[in-house]
Design goal:
The protein is mostly beta strands and 115 residues long. It has no helices and 11 strands.
């Protein structure tokens, strides 16, 4: 059973950094595309960043230049390095992947940016 598990959320001050990790596991861990969504209170879930099978990388305009997505194929882990965090980045961050045309979601990790 394929699974995605996030870690790395927490409380950080504005201007700070966090790194989220998403570990993929199961009979086949080649999730593509794989990436991150987020959902703030009272708002719809939105795409943040993802990596495709051919190396295409997407960033939402609101995070471009501040967030960096990367993948470690040796450990089947996708990372989201978040720098210069802002209060509006506060949300539950979800890992999302597609394998064999089936979507999978992680359980989510809370990121709170506050002074």
């Amino acid at each position: 059973q394929e699974q995605l598990a996030e870690s790395g959320g927490g409380l950080v001050q504005p201007g700070g950094s966090l790194r989220l990790a998403c570990a993929a596991s199961g009979s086949s861990s080649d999730f593509y595309p794989i990436g991150w969504f987020r959902q703030a209170p009272g708002k719809e879930r939105e795409g943040v960043s993802c990596i495709s099978s051919i190396g295409f990388v997407y960033y939402a305009s609101s995070v471009k230049g501040r967030f960096t997505i990367s993948r470690d194929d040796a450990t089947n882990t996708v990372y989201l390095q978040m720098n210069n965090l802002k209060p509006e980045d506060t949300a539950v961050y979800y890992c999302h992947g597609v394998i064999f045309a089936t979507e999978y979601w992680g359980q989510g990790t809370q990121v709170t940016v506050s002074s």
